[in-house]
Amino acid sequence: MIIYHYQVLYFPRESLKPHSRTESSSKAAFLDHCETLWMRSAAAWRDAGLTGLLNEIANSSAEVPKWLSVSSGCVLALLQRISSFHGSLFPHLTLSSEDMIAEFSQVLKWSDCAVRAFAWHPHTDKFAVALLDDSIKIYNPKSATAPTLKHRLQRSVAAVQWKPLCASALAVACQNCLLVWHVDPCSLSTRPSSGCAQVLSHPGHSPVTSIAWSPSGSFLVSASPMDTNMMVWDVAAESCVPLQRVGGGGVTFLSWSPDGSHVLASTPAALFRVWETRMWTCERWPCLKGRCQSGCWSPDGSRLLFTVQGETVIYALTFTDTPGIPSNTKGPKAAAVVADLSETTFNTPGGDIVVGGEIQSLAWDPRGERLAVLLKGDPQARDRPAMIAVFKTRTSPIFELLPCGFVQGEPGTEPRLMQFHPNFQHGALLTVCWSNGRITHVPFYFLSAGMARHGLGGSPPQPRPEERPADYINQTLYTELTT
Amino acid sequence: MFSVEQSCWFIRKVICWRAAASVAWAVLLLPPSIAVFVIISRVSLLHPIQWISECVSLLTSATAIFSFILLCGVVLIVGFLNLEYYTVIPSIACSKIALLGQLLHPRQFVSSLVHCILGVIVAWCCAVTIGGRYQTLGYPCTQADGSPQLCLNEYQVILLLAGAFVGYCHSVLGVIHNMNYVSFHTVQQYKYLRFKGSLPLVVKCSAIQALYSVRNYLVVYFFLGYVPRTWICKTLNLQLNSSLHPLDTIAGLLDFSLLYHLWISGTFLLFTWYITLLLFRIFVTEVYSFPVQSSFTEDVHQCLPKVLTGQQPAILKFLALHDLALLSQHSPSRRSEVFSLSQPGGHPHNWNAISQECLSLLADLTQRLVAHHDTVATNGRAKSLSTGSDKKSLSSESSVTSGTEDVMTPRPSVLIKTPASVFLRSSVGSPLTVPFTPDLDSPFSSPALRRLAGPVEQCSPWHGTVQSPHIMRRGPKLWSTSTDSQANSLPSSPAPVPSPTPAASKPSLLAQFLQNRKEQVLQSDCCPEPELLDQIRLLIDSLPEASSQALFADTQSHIWALEGLSYLVKASFSEDQFGVVQTTLPSILSSMLVLQEAVDRHFKLPHASSKPVRSTSSMEDSSYKTLRFALRATLKTAIYRITTTFGEHLNAVQMSAEHQKRLQQFLEYKE
Fold this sequence. Notes:
Distance between the termini of chain A: 6 Å
Number of domains of chain B: 2
Oligomer: heterodimer
Main location (chain B): nucleus
Largest sheet of chain B: 2 strands, antiparallel
CATH superfamily of the largest domain in chain A: YVTN repeat-like/Quinoprotein amine dehydrogenase
Strand content of chain A: 25-35%
GO molecular function (chain B): protein-macromolecule adaptor activity
Largest sheet of chain A: 4 strands, antiparallel
CATH class of the largest domain in chain A: Mainly Beta
Low-confidence stretches of chain A: 323-329, 451-483
Subcellular location (chain B): Nucleus membrane; Nucleus, Nuclear pore complex
Shape of chain A: globular
Membrane topology (chain B): Multi-pass membrane protein
Largest interface: A-B, 33 and 33 residues
GO biological process, one term (chain B): mRNA transport
């Protein structure tokens, strides 16, 4: 008898207060203090840089010579012109940080989502959940304490990820910086101090929308749509190497292949890059329609599935060069369409449902046998909800992708975020975060071809009926199963 | 200067060529930087056409070509100095007085002098390029009595002296900031991309550094400017033009154009030198791929196992370890050569040589950490290790298990009883146990262990003894477990402090003198003048951060050894056909665990900061300051890499109970 206790968590949206503070909001609450122009200029320079200084000078025309205020006003106007021109080249630069994260996040409707990021530990059963109130909670089935991580700089968490080959390190992509928490797994403390967090920041590299650890645990890459640099961090030394490629105007999404040989880096423009991690060179992949929205790698790192904004298909790229041998043979010349997810109407007892359309994110289970696709749906139409479609996949001898089923939540809820458990013994376990703040786990029991061949871990569990669109949510708090 | 290294094939065939290539590139980059300098120095926004045409005519003139040739010579000499002074192990001054000793070292004095002269030459080139009032040293003038004479052009003097000053500052700051330290990047990039990535930083650094240097120079010139001026007047028989303002006054120095030109010249000077340095660093640290084995006997000394274990300059060892770390990670075909057996005989010579060397490196570091910890624990503060060198504790000898002795290789009779064979290495000349005057050139590992690590002595009976539970039972304590071959076994009692030989390292008389004075002062604790003593103590007390840095100065090699070992062990799970790795697995695991314990203990010391300091963006390569954090992370990852790969199979590996327990923590992801 095998019983799994994967706790179903519930974070009601109402119980979480989002922070509505901005940098300058507290300023108005205090009385205006008479400072000399020098002091104010210095403060403005410190707070807001050159534009702040110029603004300050231009605004205090009574105290400065006329030529100075006029010239600083001119320079300010010129700077604004330049930045608006730059913004017209790359429209995403005009967004605010929050909007930018919401736009480029893998989470559907990130801004009003109670659970903003989720990450399974790559080796154990613990996971981290980033919530709307900018706190992160860590749940471990073997421990009664659930530490809550809070930090002054931990705002607008866009992504979290555990460091591979490490028990404690958790990287957090925040609005202004990267945080790497070191949460001692044996500690009983429920509020680790902010001294446990390393702060990694680089001028101009904010907001961070995506992070990825190398599977060997040695590097962390981070991306910001505002910065054309992709940062490769040596976390222990807190040093970074910027890898700059100007085209695209930023980097939005990163995904490191499981074998560590490639990194997918998409940009806000219709262009994405695939970096080779040995010498850090990249291939450019221009898309026709929109930017690359999401992507995922097959377990052996040889195949990349990705989706493009504005299209309803999944593309595949195959990388044949074996890692380690520097070969001049470039990858494929063009991506192949492997699945078409155009809208289809299904007749259900509750009425017709239209499924399909644009894709928010992709997730491939660590054995390469199930592919989950989060479809955006249409928020205006009631019969076109966001939904997770699941496909059976096989990578060898040829790539196959077969429809398998759908995962649906309680009535009125929609999936926002999903991730596969990295080492579920008996198949695949998909964790889904719903719009009502619930986190549930959807198991897929199957006899893995790879498992049967290797014969590790004793007798494999009996195969169960494949997948049920029936909602597991209405069941008990624990998903349990007996064999 | 070259005599010691001349013998090494690697220096001759690789490093020298790399240095030459870097200088060649620096020379090729000179014309564009001169052009940019000319354009910026003659900038006049009001007459753009005249400005451009002047620049073009100047760049094609004979003066420009002559100064280009001069600058080429300067770059050549700077490149040579880079090659001569570079080091892969930074010399970290543990106290202020040690830093002073470094600054006053004759070798450093030569370098400063050369940099001063080079600075003057570059400044002269700048002066003739800028032209105008800076063009010549003397000019005809009429004195008050109406007679024509040659007068001194103070503008050129101030520029030339600025060059000398900036050059001197560059050389002094180079010592303080370990500018000659060459670090290896963890992120591999092609040379061009790396250069392109660092170029903005070089421009920024040279501009900022020039700004500070010029500011300091102006202060110096304001107070002492008359000294060189009168001296030049006297020697060259020039007159001072009394009708002009002298420049060492406030009014004279507040000349905006003069300040601008000083700053631009300083920036140009530093830029050319930094570019040369940057190119040198990029070229020297490029990955060199050593063959793992060769079928030709004349190439055997160039193969990875031989290179790793041989006596050699540190750069060769570092590049070999770097190559090992990369091959273990990326190259299955080269890994299979490592796991292969020798053709007649069937011995895994390659793997043995490589693993022994890596393990001895780790044991060396463990030993160093234990010794440091013990000194700190006994004294309450980190005294320089050298002061307590003579108290070789006999207690440690008594605790030696007899088993370790009887298998030891013959040694000089005095040392044969000491269990800490690693200390032999440090007494042979490990620079790091001598933080006072760390040696730049001596190889950092001992011949004593290398003899053991050589493939000839690598016979399987050794492994048999190591693995037998007999020995394991004899060493239940964490510090006394045999790490690999018995020679590496560590003492269980407070370790004797290594006997350093300051005289054997850099024969700096001054440093020697300072060292002696320091010891005298430290011994005369009953001195009746406490205030004075405190003052002196402030000078000679070791800075805690620095002593920790010095302890880990060469840790990049240990990081690679850990990475190489763990990746090889991980790959051996599926690739090792003959099971050669299995025999060494217990010793690899236990030496990693022992090191882990030592590192943990080190980070619990009150002095050791637990977080890396923020590095400022400058040309100074401060990566040596964070090496210990990188080591800590790498060590943990390396152990996890092995435990994740082998999983429950590790329970079958024979190890002491303590290590088993520790390993279980890793298997449960609780570390």
